[in-house]
Specification:
With about 400 residues, the chain is α/β, with parallel strands linked by helices. The protein folds into 2 domains: about 280 residues, Aminopeptidase (3-Layer(aba) Sandwich), CATH 3.40.630.10; about 110 residues, 2-Layer Sandwich (Alpha-Beta Plaits). About 35% of the residues lie in helices and about 25% in strands. It has 10 helices and 16 strands. β1 and β2 form a beta hairpin. The longest helix is centred in the C-terminal third of the chain and has 21 residues. Bound molecules: zinc ion (ZN) (2 copies). One zinc ion (ZN) binds next to loops.
């Protein structure tokens, strides 16, 4: 493995920062302490910063030479609203908040790269270090773009990285095309007419209507979209009624839809609305249909994916750079890839064996209450960031 020596030398100090961030998790758009810490470190290392983009975002600007070329590296910095089960010293000190997705590690890996890039400017151009808030549902990437990220800091390409449990330490994974899904939510209210449960003919019962609807939605997946296209409809909430002897007035269905393309998403949304409205009409009920599109699909650009793969191979060897199987999870880096070419990759977090005394039961996955980022990755991820930036700025502009 070809790690950068100076990064390896500083890794213990960066791991201490990572554990400090882990102990003080902050939720979407509330990452004030984390942003202060990032800003203080970048400033200490002589890196000019811009603050406040997307509320709590921090951008570090590392320049060298005279070239106007630039590349962006992005880390998310937010935590999740869940209770940590670990009892080790760096466990969360905030009730109901936890770095269970390893964004503390993402922040640390980019800080380690920043520290090295500031001291060793072996490039001609600008590296933008993007510390982004609110990945977990808040759309911090979209907010930073709205606040002018790419206008204020013009960059040719942007790259992102997520730690991945189950993938061995020393492995990367990246694939071109869609790697994460679009995430969308729906809420359907079926308005019938309440009655005595013994006299159902006096009302319009929304419950059997809801049951038909839940079943019919799955025919969109099995009969309407092409079998080779990926798509998920999950009805996750069904709410109606409060008494065994009352036919409720209304029934509410909620859930999520995931797809890898906007075409499949359009199809699913249209079909869901048609099914919902027409089933309600058939049973003489009223229908309220709401469909909210959250994150778009995360789609890697082919040339930038191949480029990232080459950089990874230079560090861990081609055999340790795998293809990433797409997942139906979602990621707001999608917005950045809609605006600029780039690639979102995965760095192996191992099988959980790194976890010390005080961890809950393992091995575990991200969003698990006993999850912890593997500090062993800090020099590896940071070496990737540095080599990626250097190689990008060294190659001819396209
Ligand atoms: Zn997450
Ligand atoms: Zn995450």
């Amino acid at each position: 493995m070809k790690l950068i020596d100076s990064i390896v030398g500083q890794a213990a100090g960066i791991a201490a920062i990572r554990r400090d961030i882990h102990a003080h998790p902050e939720l979407c758009f509330e990452e004030v302490r984390t942003a202060d810490l990032v800003a203080a470190k970048l400033t200490e290392w002589g890196i000019p910063i811009h603050r406040g983009m997307g509320t709590t975002g921090v951008v570090g600007i590392v320049k060298n030479g005279s070239s106007s070329r630039a590349v962006g590296l992005r880390a998310d910095i937010d935590a999740l609203p869940m209770q940590e089960f670990n009892t080790f010293p760096h466990a969360s000190r905030h009730q109901g908040k936890m770095h269970a997705c390893g964004h503390d590690g993402h922040t640390a890996m980019l800080l380690a790269a920043a520290q090295h890039l500031a001291k060793n400017r072996h490039f001609d151009g600008t590296v933008y270090l993007i510390f982004q808030p609110a990945e977990e549902g808040g759309g911090g990437a979209r907010e930073m773009i709205r606040d002018g990220l790419f206008e204020q800091f013009p960059m040719e390409a942007v790259f992102g990285m997520h730690n991945w449990p189950g993938l061995p330490v020393g492995c990367f994974a990246v694939s071109e095309g869609p790697v994460m899904a679009s995430s969308n939510e729906f809420k359907i209210t079926i308005r019938g007419k309440g009655s005595h449960a013994a006299l159902p003919h006096m009302g319009t019962d929304p419950v059997p209507i809801a049951c038909q609807m839940v079943q019919a939605f799955q025919t969109i997946i099995s009969r309407n979209k092409k079998p080779v296209d990926a798509g998920v409809i999950s009805v996750t909430m069904v709410h109606a009624g409060e008494a065994t002897n009352v036919v409720p007035d209304s029934c509410e269905l909620q859930g999520t839809v995931r797809t890898f393309t906007l075409e499949v998403l359009d199809l699913i949304e249209q079909r869901m609305q048609a099914i919902a409205e027409n089933i309600c009409a058939a049973f003489d009920a009223q229908c309220e249909f709401e469909f909210v599109r959250n994150y778009p699909p995360t789609v890697n650009h082919p040339a930038e994916t191949a480029f990232a793969r080459e950089v990874m191979a230079g560090i861990v060897g081609a055999d340790n750079v795998r293809l990433q199987e797409p997942t139906m999870g979602a990621e707001d880096f999608a917005y950045m890839l809609q605006a600029r070419p780039g690639a979102y990759c995965f760095i192996g977090n191992g099988d959980g064996a790194h976890r010390e005394i005080g961890h809950g039961a393992g091995p575990c996955t991200i969003h698990n209450p006993s999850y912890d980022f593997n500090d062993e990755l800090i020099p590896l991820g940071a070496s990737y960031w540095v080599r990626l930036a250097e190689a990008w700025l060294a190659r001819p502009a396209r």
